[in-house]
Amino acid sequence: MTAHYDQQPILQARSIVKRYGSVTAIDHADLTLYPGEILAVIGDNGAGKSSLIKALSGALIPDEGEILLDGKPVHFNSPMQARELGIETVYQNLAVSPALNIADNLFLGRELRKPGILGSVFRMLDKRAMEERAQAKMQELGLMTIQNISQAVESLSGGQRQGVAVARSALFGSKVVIMDEPTAALGVKESRRVLNLIKEVRDRGLPIILISHNMPHVFEVADRIHIHRLGKCAATITPDSHTMSEAVAIMTGAMEVNSDPVAA
Amino acid sequence: MSAANSKPSVHISDHDKVADQAGSGSYVANFEAKESPLERFKKFLHKYPVAAPTIVLILAIIGFSAIIGDRFLHPFNLSLILQQVTIIGVIGIAQTLIILTAGIDLSVGAIMVLASVVMGRMAIDHGIEAWLALLIGIGVGAITGLINGSLITRFKLPPFIATLGSWNVFFALNLWYSKSETIRSQEIANNAPLLQWLGETVTFFGARLTYGSLLMLALFVLIWYALNWTAWGRHVYATGDDPAAAKLAGIRTDRVLLSVYVLAGIVCAIGAWVLIGRIGSVSPQAGYTTNLDSITAVVIGGCSLFGGRGSIFGTLIGALVVGVFRNGLALAGVDVLWQEFTVGILIIVAVGVDQWIRRGKA
Ligand SMILES: Nc1ncnc2c1ncn2[C@@H]1O[C@H](COP(=O)(O)OP(=O)(O)OP(=O)(O)O)[C@@H](O)[C@H]1O
Ligand SMILES: [Mg+2]
């Protein structure tokens, strides 16, 4: 494996708590992400996976606990702060703007401006550059057969929209990429491409947190598997240490785990 | 969708052979080929929101010139229509910005009148230089916009309620500050002619345009540029389209909203200057129909009240549609009440068309 477990973790969540009224979505959850690894997060519906990664990406502010990036505490008040530090997220609900086109969506919040006075004084967008880069990225990812990068996202299929969200994270992620069920709406071929993309991103040295309900996918790409149950981490296993049915048993509470098989 | 998309999809580059065998190249099904002309028209309208009001405008012009004849198409009459829509056009710009964010501003008319009263009293009663009085009036517009924006972003009031309240507050302030008195046109002409400057005209080919109309057109171009060619404009659309998604994409939607309300307040204050130019005097009772007229122009112009959809030039067209119908019906000798009736029908049809278009998407 390419991961480095002896190194300082890139991203760490310690004892995160998040309550929605009387519901405790995250209950003193821990999570550790090492450089160069794919960390899968699995768990039942409502276990708190999305809530946890939202805390890591600035989309929600935890009630308790701390988040460390490269060992230093960080406090995100907005998704932009996390993005500025290189944490890029594909949200489960995709977070794309339906009426905007593909290129606008890819660059939303990080638009490119024309060089020179047009950009600096007149704040003029460099639409051509954004469209070209968007086109290149979508083609490189081969996620979809889209002919027109300036078509509105609402005219795309669900899977194609997912492709847009995935492309955005691959385009901008520089430290950590988080993907919340990126293959949920995808066909067989498109899922395969996203999985290959995830491996490629990992091989480029970027660690990834992947939330998925698809056990074969998880066992294929993950270096480690974080099992989330009832708002906290029930166990962290590897595809070699446990079988799929053991993982599912831990996830549902049918099996207790006594030791953490992974170093550190 | 455009014509290009109705062709069978072309398979773009592919570096994943396994995946290629897993599914066929043209994975996206091509249902589009079977579309009816009506469906295609709907998609066309969806893609070009200005198309529907433009068609209505052209048909109305053709219709009225057929009924009324040359008198309608005379450059003088056309420039009259433009003058008549100038104030609604300017205030419509402010309203468009707000409706694009899925908001609504019921206080635009009150802001305009308040700003005009401030400009007039500053220049006439307090003897402040006219240009400074204008700037103070514009400052008042910005502050009123800031108040609206803060109520909506800080206190999370729905825009309808926030601006319903501020409408009354601003209108009352306006009556108080003006002491319900009108500043006469002659007085302004003698002491602060700059305030009336936008009412002066230039003549092109027999058409007399006021500087106010030209300023309105310039504002449209400026705001069009800001909406379409700057990141801020993209953020305005994204915020109106889906605020949760915009927030997750890292856009500070509250800031965008605040900037929109402040800008709208400033535009309304510019509208105040146009208003003084148009009527010559400063009256605390002027322009009280502007509120609803501006919403009418925006809606007929194809902006969706649900936000994120529409074009600023649609509002210009919408204002012109209203102007053309009013003027045409008046020239045809029809009672004023039928003007109101027609505008009402236009609003209902415009919103109906918007709903129909929005239902059309996959
Ligand atoms: N905005 C919210 N308001 C109230 N409760 C919420 C909210 N978001 C999540 N929850 C609750 O928090 C718990 C965890 O939700 P979360 O979305 O994190 O689960 P998940 O593990 O991602 O599930 P899934 O696999 O279905 O995506 C659930 O009980 C859910 O009802
Ligand atoms: Mg989830």
TrEMBL record, chain A:
Report the SUPFAM superfamilies cross-referenced here. P-loop containing nucleoside triphosphate hydrolases (SSF52540)
| Molecular function (Gene Ontology), one example | ATP hydrolysis activity
Its keywords, alphabetically, are: ATP-binding, Nucleotide-binding
Q: Which InterPro entries match?
A: AAA+_ATPase (IPR003593), ABC_carbohydrate_import_ATPase (IPR050107), ABC_transporter-like_ATP-bd (IPR003439), P-loop_NTPase (IPR027417)
Domain of life from the UniProt record: Bacteria
What Pfam family does this protein match (any one)?
ABC_tran
ABC transporter domain residues: 11-255
Q: Which CDD domains match?
A: ABC_Carb_Monos_I
| Residue stretches in coiled coil | none
Instruction: Output this protein's name.
Output: Sugar ABC transporter ATP-binding protein
Automatic annotation (TrEMBL), chain B:
Q: Name one GO cellular component term.
A: plasma membrane
Name the InterPro entries for this protein.
Answer: ABC_transp_permease
Q: Which residues belong to the signal peptide in this entry?
A: none
Sorted alphabetically, the keyword list is: Cell membrane, Membrane, Transmembrane, Transmembrane helix
| Entry's localization field | Cell inner membrane
UniProt membrane topology term: Multi-pass membrane protein
Please name the CDD domains in this protein's record: TM_PBP1_transp_AraH_like
Question: What molecular functions are annotated in GO for this chain?
Answer: transmembrane transporter activity
What highest taxon heads this organism's lineage? Bacteria
Has keyword Electron transport?
no
Mind telling me which residue stretches traverse the membrane in this protein? 48-68, 80-100, 106-124, 131-151, 157-177, 209-227, 256-276, 297-325, 337-357
Report the sequence similarity comment from the record: Belongs to the binding-protein-dependent transport system permease family. AraH/RbsC subfamily.
**What is the protein's given name?**
ABC transporter permease
Origin species: Marinomonas piezotolerans
